[in-house]
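User: Predict the full complex structure for these chains.
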Amino acid sequence: MKLIVNKDKLNSSIQQVSKAISSRTTIQILGGIKVDAHTQGITLTASDTDISIQSTIPPQDGDTELFTIEQEGAVVLPAKFFVDIIRKLPEDTVEIEVKDGFQTMIRSGLSEIQLVGMDAEEYPLLPSMDVKEMVMMQSDLLKTMIRQTILAVSTQESTPILTGVLFNIQEEHIKLIATDRHRLATREASIRNDEGIDFNNIVISGKNLNELQKLLPDQDTIIEIVRADNQVLFNLGTVQFFTRVLDGIYPDTSKIIPQSYKTEMVVPAKPFLSAMDRVNLLSREERTNIVKMATLEDGKIEISSSSSELGRITEQLDLPSISGEPLKISFNSRYMLDALKTIDSEWIHLGFTGAMSPIIVKPKDETFQLHLILPYRTTG
Amino acid sequence: MKLIVNKDKLNSSIQQVSKAISSRTTIQILGGIKVDAHTQGITLTASDTDISIQSTIPPQDGDTELFTIEQEGAVVLPAKFFVDIIRKLPEDTVEIEVKDGFQTMIRSGLSEIQLVGMDAEEYPLLPSMDVKEMVMMQSDLLKTMIRQTILAVSTQESTPILTGVLFNIQEEHIKLIATDRHRLATREASIRNDEGIDFNNIVISGKNLNELQKLLPDQDTIIEIVRADNQVLFNLGTVQFFTRVLDGIYPDTSKIIPQSYKTEMVVPAKPFLSAMDRVNLLSREERTNIVKMATLEDGKIEISSSSSELGRITEQLDLPSISGEPLKISFNSRYMLDALKTIDSEWIHLGFTGAMSPIIVKPKDETFQLHLILPYRTTG
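Assistant: Here is the predicted structure of the two-chain assembly.
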């Protein structure tokens, strides 16, 4: 292998795939990045077996040539040093030459680096995907949907299936669900499903979706989601993101969402978020995050929290609409804050079915997004 | 005490003094911020006994009134919650009212906070300073001088005196020195010393100078440095920064700086810094940070580092000037990188007195700044 490549393009591809490198891997070759150089493109691959990321540098970007290849080939280079050094090289281009025994020379200006490479033949193969098992959607929509549900995944390794987000796809409809048994977040949307594919019980770890989220382009880009046995491929164009699917059956959450309310209110999103932010400041000092919410006489609500050591905070809010029974309820301020931060709406609908029953948080007049928060059982 | 104060001004004063709050204090009242409200100004004080910071809000900023006081007084408020909540209050002004038993009400819009205050009479007094024991200098110059020496302070608590920077002031001249026994950094400058004060063996902990550095204004401001028995006060105008002086005698470092060289060279600052940055990337993987430097035949030098596991990096540099004996030397790449980052000059002068003797790093043609680095003893 011998080539000259644009430094910035090589660097951005390295940064993209390096998210799949685990520093704790015991498999030596997975501590490396595989470089495949062909005249059609230079492809970089990294994997920690849970996720695998591929990024391809095309021969041209518009009129600009991004690389020239003197000799095609492949090599695996140790990620540790490779990931940082390319960015710091002095010139705009980098020469890479693989010699006997996978010794690799990297040259740029008066810098010369000799890396101990590894045999690309020994690098594990990525799963082969049937491109027919595929749906298409907007990149920024998927990014938003992940952001609106990932907050509710469990961090408890004792229930591994709940550490993921459930992807349900049926006909032209996608729904994401996450729950840690104390709260639940769902988001639905339309999707392009030409092949009529069903996704059932596809659960992807929150940790992996967090990495995917960083790679999803914000612009108006269509991405493909391809399903295989125990893998899902997110095809972002020049970047391919493969993730393992979590084992196990995701619990049925459909029955815990109340269909009618005893108390309903519409709250202004920004003032409610900032009041909750202040109350949370004090409640987190107590480590319980307990906040109390009560309806007042004149269309107002009061939110409060107290700390035996520090003091007390009370917030009042004027509501445009409040109906049903008077209410006194306690809940986790952190959960409410997390939920509110994902709602991109001027008004928020809160629904209550009693002091011991789930609280529903939704954008007003919309049904595509929903948060459920279980209240605290408190005395008095 | 009862007052209404501009929220942003109160917040910035809180942020300034809060750097002196230690989360690990066992003295309850030092977990608080003292608020002294007088018509002449509202003064906030925080202290961890090692450093104390005072910030004063004046009655006016130009034509804008910054506070109105209904009743003067003082209280100590728990920093934990107070530091974060003020910034998040909904309105531009904040009302603070101290009631019986130091219960303090904070109001802004529909937010009401009740804080468990403490008796300001119990707050420790700051040292009284004799304002005659005072020198004056530019704030940004002091900031630069700290930045150029603090890198060399020791992190070893076994030699406490070396964890500080030595301040020497004699006549119209100030010199800062820091050393961890492996490297040394000095910086000198002129100072205004109307009272003819001498500072001898005044050593201030690097940790404290790091906090001071964040408070020093960048603009063209004159600050005062006031000396007392075991304290120094940096008077920055509306902010007063008190720091304890380290106990012990600072070692005499004057004799270790060589007066003549066996090899001298002038290197271009930016290319040398970036070459050293690349070499350091590999050498730090070996944890020893060893880099080798050698003069070549044709007015060039070569810098290299190798890792048994990863490979090798070699950098060459063309020098405009090199004289004396040929040289092969090994040193710590981190120390060189730290030193180079503090030199604001296009060309750097390197002086060597042999492979086992100190390396001197200076801006070319200048004597006000100097770094000394001890080489590694290596075989071959």
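Chain A has a mean pLDDT of 95.
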